[in-house]
Predict the structure.
Amino acid sequence: MKKLKKILLTILILALVLGGAYLGFKYKNAKDKAPTITSTSLKESLLSVEELTTTKYFYTSMGTYENQSNFYGIKIPLTLKKFIISFEGTISAGVNLDEMTIEVKDNNILISLPETKILSHEIDENSIKIYDEKSSIFNPLKVEDYSAFRQDQKEEREAEALNKGLLSKAEEKAKDSIRELLLLIPEVEENYQIQFVKTIKTEN
């Protein structure tokens, strides 16, 4: 009876040892397979989806161009040129992720974003329409008139977008998008806190 108990005890100890070794191996193997979270790998994963961090402002612009020659403040007859132009445009604002700084410190992912700015401003050439066009042989319309006026209109629309808080909206969109994208990585979601900071201090 004592011999049987001894054998059973030996089998139990052996099973515990083997079980512990097996679990240890599985843990080590799983740990080895887990992706290594580094600042470089995180930045590379974000750079590929930079478009998701931008905010777009769509608008339709209409303006009247008018020019007339004058002599000492008196408008000269038959020198008036004018037109009304309308077009649609898109202003994209966001951050240049190339200039983003990321640092992985303990269980924190620290992210410093560059200044939010207008990244592009495009006009839909197919949307351009010109109305009420008038010209004079003494003061003819030129291509430069259209180009300069369109540029003035673009600058006015940018100022309008900025006054409506485009940059602050773009900054929040960038932060939300970056946070959501990083949390798609299981290792980040389970083990890290994402923080946005003004600047990242480097240790000497």
The longest strand covers residues 74-94. The chain has five helices and seven strands. The radius of gyration is 33 Å.
